[in-house]
Amino acid sequence: MKYEISNEYLKVKADTEGAILWSVTDKDGFEYIWQGDDRYWNEHGANLFPYIARLWEKSYIFQGKTYHMDIHGFAKDSVFSCEKAGENELVFAMEDTRETLEQYPFHFRFEIRYLLEKNTLKVFYSVKNKDEKTMYFGIGGHPGFNIPMEEGLSFEDYELEFSRACEPQRILFSQECFVEGKESYELLEGRRIPLRHNLFDEDAIVLEKTSGEVLLHSTKGKKAVKVSYVDMPYVGFWHMPCMDAPYVCIEPWCSLPSRQGITENLEEQKNLISLEAGRECQIFWTMEIL
Hints:
The chain has 1 helix and 24 strands. By secondary structure, the chain is mostly beta strands. It has a 9-stranded antiparallel sheet with strand order 7-8-9-10-24-20-19-14-17, with no helix packed on it. A 6-stranded antiparallel sheet has the order 13-22-21-18-15-16, with no helix packed on it. The protein has a 3-stranded antiparallel sheet with strand order 1-2-3, with no helix packed on it. Strand 2 (10-15) and strand 3 (21-26) form a beta hairpin. It is globular, with a radius of gyration of 19 Å. The protein starts with a strand and ends with a strand. The mean pLDDT is 95.
């Protein structure tokens, strides 16, 4: 079931299925969120929990037992309850079930809050550990943005521009999309990534040590999207490889996929969040429509 919030700047829709951000439109009626297309990618942008991207052989180890989980975890395929639906705020929640415990042996509560403030949508993730043991997880977003945003422009007219000069490290992936190391990633003028379709022929570009804020825009147009992710150490940029897909995903992540050829021990994977019994963790990212 879809719920809607709006103000004089934006209209936002989200679905109880996965608490997915379904739509963001401005006062001109332009749709910023990719609406899905079987030719390219039939999704909008999942909420990733409790793991980001792939596990080697879809498996991990916790306290000596092997568990199995599909790509990006199970939250994206779960039905959330809508806890609040106000004029400018939506709150969705899910808790562990018999099915989730088979994949992930923790009792938890996961909330996603969408808060609309003027031309900015804030996305809050809240995880509460309801278990008696420390909980380990990854969390992140995967929104796809339509480009071009204006008539007369093309995909290649756009760029990703960080809010300040930085020297990011790129997370290297194998052909099967598992972590293989890091290397320096050179930005144009220390800040910019001009977009072209073949940029994603080897799948996602995932960076760390960035400015925590990136602008998707064209110098030839007026509409733009600014994504801020200061709470999150990684950001990914992606569209379906080897295609002329008319969108780009900007993905704020708190953790990484598993390493090539390694069945990760959940307690030992260094980039996961660890949350002690009874504690709560809150993380957020924002999307500003300019």
